[in-house]
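Morning F.,

Quick status update on the modeling queue. The single chain you submitted on Monday has been processed. Sequence for confirmation:
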Amino acid sequence: MAVHYHDYLQLDKVLNAQVTESGKQQIDAHDEMLFIVIHQAYELWFHQLHYELDSVISIMKQPSLNDNSPELQTVVHRVNRMVTILRVLVHQIDIMETMTPMDFLDFRDLLRPASGFQSWQFKELEAKLGLKFDQRHGKEYYTAQLRQEHVDRIRKAEQDQSLLQLVNNWLERVPFFEGGKAPADWAFWDEYRNIYQSSLADVEQVNLEMFDHLFFGKPLSAAPAAENTTVVSSGGGCPMGHGTASSTTTISGDNQLSVAGARSALFIMLYRGYPLLQLPFQLINGLLEIDEQLSSWRYRHMNMVHRIIGTRIGTGGSTGKDYLRAAADKHYIFREFAQLNSFLIERHRLPSLPAAVEKQLGFVTGSSL
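Structure tokens below.
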């Protein structure tokens, strides 16, 4: 039987899914239709984001993943697709902002206690990406208005391995750190630390303590190890250099990147020009793009709410703009990758790589090919 466009998209269901509360009560509120369509579109895009993210997570869960494999190319491609979808979500606010405050007041009170705060798909998406319960703003009530089956979904996502955790696991076992390719006497991280220290201005010297914390596992002076640190496995130990990190390194409880993971990520950012490191760099950059677009969406949403309802509380009982601002400031999922930019140095000062390492990364020196 031939497939028809109308049936394939189930348009009877889709086009009859906009039932206005104002229409039920015979109240004239023209913009409620727009309000419903935009939020239904958001939820459909969230559904697609889950579909893409689940596929990425299934690939990243593999016990081994070659950095030059079709699987990693697929991961990067789908992460970039997620970024593009998130850009669309940001731009949808332009349409919403064609609704004036008075237009919204025509039907706002009819919505209580329904609220965008009840979007379980968005909260589950954040959890799958890597936002932990302890890192949430307003964690004491962020699931309070959800149905139990949706709370259960979010709790499961928080307990499962997130994309951030899986990326850290992958970074700990990146192929160019395996197989003994680096000379035994090559102390890359000691050399890099000395170059980095010499690049710091006097007022930046505090960065060196954070450098030692992230890349050598040393506790911060403001956070005694006995109280505020936790033991995190760093998988393959101390890649490409010696230093003091071991396979199990004590680092701050706020960190989700292990010492080995942070080292690998910084190395990829520094030497991304090598062929083998280009896809890994694109993946890290894609994660930062996801954070940037989520942040843009939150701030645009916050400003739109302030423009339409001012300082009034949300229909779901939240503090409106104040809640959105606090969440926007706190909910950076991949912030640890962004923080690595503080530890970059100029290209011309980068330590030279041994020939064996360069060959492994994709550049063959000499006249023979």
